[in-house]
Amino acid sequence: MPGAELDLRAIVAAVSDAADHALALWAGGETRVRQWEKVPGHPVCEADLEVDGLLRASLGAIDPGAGWLSEETADTVHRLGVSRVWVVDPIDGTRDYLRGRPGWAVSVALVEDGAVRLGILAAPARNEYWIAQAGQGATRNGRTLRAGSRDALAGARVPAEQLPRIDRDLVTVAKPNSIALRMAMVAADEADLVATVRWGNEWDIAAAAIICQEAGATVTDALGDPLLFNRPRPTAFGLLCAAPGIHAAATERLAPRAREILGGG
User: Fold this and answer.
1) Is 96 annotated among the ligand-binding residues?
2) Is 52 annotated among the ligand-binding residues?
3) CA distances from residue 180 to 185, 195, 263 in whole angstroms, order as listed
4) Which InterPro entries match (predicted)?
5) Could you tell me the pLDDT band of residue 137, with boundaries at 50, 70 and 90?
6) Model confidence pLDDT, tens digit, residues 103-121
7) 224 and 197 in contact (C-beta within 8 Å)?
8) What's 194's domain CATH number?
9) 166 and 70 in one domain?
10) Which whole number is the average pLDDT over 57-65?
11) Rounded Cα gap, residues 10 and 4, in angstroms
């Protein structure tokens, strides 16, 4: 049923319930959940899996025909044969979660025919709930978001701990571990630019992408090309999320690095 009306209230409730469960396990930063590494350098914990299970059950009941793509669920080809897919990161920013820091969020997007239709970020440790629907704007805690109007790349605010030498004309601001929350900072005009030059997964950015776009920011891959979702290999090379007035200049600076990494010279 492409274009079907969303039960937004039920979806928000499902995400909120899952986020509350994650917050209860986080216990004010004193996390006691079992943790391990999926591969070296990539932590996961019981909360990731429990939130994944809760969301798959509740969202599946809301839209039984939708496919499923999640960081914590083995991928299958089923999602490629349906028009709508839930794209989920149960806890984006697991490192902050395990360190007792608040820079983590539950990220849920509904993708339809390759485009994000709905995005929700629930960051209960920060008392933040971000929601966007295609064509209907973006909000944080009910307040409308609008990306900044900066038109000069120099001085742009970047959520980062340090910057490469070539980017020393930029300004660092506080960096949550969750890349979705870093992107959302651009939507809220708390940052001007978030960029990466590595392969990333759809579940990391899908919800934040529509939040940023609906707030007026420009979101592409590291080469400046549009992002597509629910691809057979659900990844994109790099990310460039920026205030619209600096996206072209940021692309001009970032794309050569991206091409070099990709082997394009």
Assistant:
1) no
2) no
3) 9, 12, 27
4) Inositol_monoP_metal-BS, Inositol_monophosphatase-like, Inositol_monophosphatase_CS
5) very high
6) 999 999 999 999 999 999 9
7) no
8) 3.40.190.80
9) no
10) 96
11) 15
Shared-domain flag, residues 70 and 188: no
Is residue 167 marked as binding?
Answer: no
Q: Are residues 99 and 192 in the same domain?
A: no
To the nearest 10 degrees (0 to 180), the angle between helices 179-187 and 202-214 is 10
* Mean per-residue pLDDT of the chain: 94
Query: Does pTM surpass 0.90?
Result: yes
Question: Are 82 and 198 part of one and the same domain?
Answer: no
State the pLDDT at residue 27.
79
Mean pLDDT check: name the lowest of 3-7, 234-238, 256-260: 3-7
Task: Give residue 191's pLDDT band: very low, low, confident or very high (50, 70, 90).
Answer: very high
Tokens of residue 81, six digits: 């044969």
Task: Judge whether 71 is annotated as a binding position.
Answer: yes
CB 127 within 8 A of CB 140: no
Q: Is 89 annotated as a binding residue?
A: yes
164 CB-contact burial (10 Å; exposed 0-12 / middle 13-18 / buried 19+): exposed
Nearest 5°: CA angle at 8, between 4 and 206? 85
Q: 104 φ, ψ to 5°?
A: -130, 160
Backbone angles phi, psi at 219, to 5 degrees: -130, 125
Q: Are residues 114 and 170 in the same domain?
A: no
Query: In degrees to the nearest 10, what's the CA dihedral of 247, 95, 92, 100?
Result: -110
Query: Is 85 part of any domain?
Result: yes
The pLDDT value given to residue 37: 84
Domain that holds residue 207: 157-264
Same domain? For 23 and 138 the reply is yes
Q: Does 15 share its domain with 45? A: yes
pLDDT given at position 35: 85
What would you report as the CA-atom Rg of the chain, rounded to the nearest whole angstrom?
18
